[in-house]
Batch of 2 targets.
Target 1
Amino acid sequence: MKHPHISPLGLAVLASISLVSPALATVNINWTSIDNPVNTPDTAVMRVDGTTGYGAVSYAYNIGTYDVTAAQYVEFLNAKGASNSAGIYKSIMGTGVYPQGSNIIQSGSSGSYSYSVSSTYANMPVVGVTWFDAARFCNWLSNGQGSGSMETGAYTLSGATSGIIMANAGDQIRLPTEDEWYKAAYYNGASGTYSRFPDGRNDVGSADAAYNPYASGLVNVNYGTPSSYGVYGMGGNVYQWNDAVITDTTRGLRGGCWNLDYTVMQSNLRAHSVPSQNGAYVGFRVASLVPEPTSVILTIFSGGMLLFRRRR
């Protein structure tokens, strides 16, 4: 297994939903603005090619304050998964698959599938998503949700479920770049410095993030201590896809997960996997250029991987 960094989790959870069901609702993303453009890179952590460090971003952007939740993904499934085209629902997302997994239930038959998740799991990160599932969710948000396309937008997928596909230019909602993710997790805009962990400090404790040996499964996306920018869940709980191409066949993951120890949350560790891999420890968050996207309302939030470690 390869491991990345971490940042605590947080979310102002609204009233508990007893069941998120086929009745479609708007997916509402809480956004955190990441300003301080043209910041310097983290020279204490060099890139694998030995050049500059990570975290330098020349523009302002937004990143999801929280991981995408199981309840939010259920709304996507109910809008686009009646036939489960492109396999956006996977059995690993269901019940009884893994301790405190997404527990998303698929009902009905192909052509009329519907999906639900109980309130117990609604605000936990969705897990079992491939990079392509995450990209399709981004496309759907970019296209206004509902019947909006999941095949075009931030990414031109055209049915693809394997390979390397780069984001299109523009301000669509998409996965964060590795530098965007890193800056939101480790950079302090006020001091111009980087921390070792995504809680804004150079140490981490069990109250800051969900990680082994203190965690026994997934926790809600509002758990822990946020980064200096106020972004939750960037360490522990679940690894998160980003848009980095690590090798010719793999995409980037960062943030660690609940069943690995604190070392994977450090800024000098990253992970990667083939983009078709769907793991019980893998989720994602979204990003967008400013101004904040108007297609997403800013209020609610709804919740066996192969990783390979590389020290940088």
Target 2
Amino acid sequence: MILVVLASGRGKRLENLTKQKPKCLINISNKFTLLDGISRNFKFFKKVVIVTGYKNHLIEKKLNFKNLVFIKNKKYFNTNMVESLFLTKNEIKNEDILITYADIFFDTKILINLIKIKKNIIPLKKNWYQSWKARYKSLTKIKKDAENVIVRKKKILSIGGKIKKKLPKFQYMGIVRINNSTFKKMHKFYKVLGMKNISFTHFIDKLIQNKVAEFNFLSTERFWYEVDNKKDLTYLKKNINDHLSLAKKATLV
């Protein structure tokens, strides 16, 4: 299996913190960065492909692992993560892939569990409301930022829409496991779709609605957090230390 890390963006909402470096290189604990959190998982994969963009040389300088491939999205300013994903097609070949955003920090066991499952599957955060409440305080702001997710049994029926009334049970986490055959179908659909700026969740939803692919979901309450702005960064720094020590002990069994 190949790990694909999507790390092309700058992170403008972090303002001055990303003027000199991309979001994934922001410190979250002493000199430990979001990218350090991701790289702790590299040992579990046959190959790691990182799609860079903004100040790509800083990411390349920081990482030194075997079987690590860098691909630059030269159009990162005008495209989105979906475009970055399909730039990896020549490296993927016939392997299944696990995709992760580069601006999240999570319990390593989430990825370990996904590696063992041989399906298209998306982990969904179950106890998500607590962290969103700490970030945004008001319900109005939470509904504006969070996305609707509709599931039935073990399958995702819809994802990425606006929350209208009732809060969903789950939230998308920026992590997806995809079989190789599905990856190829997704790429063909993306070329026909012609939407270079489509968000990842909206793209997944279009795949589902057009019956291009089905996605199961894995409910998890394990630690996970995304960093969009300075408030997010402050919250993560306050809650990260215990999870860093657990990550160091994680092994694939």
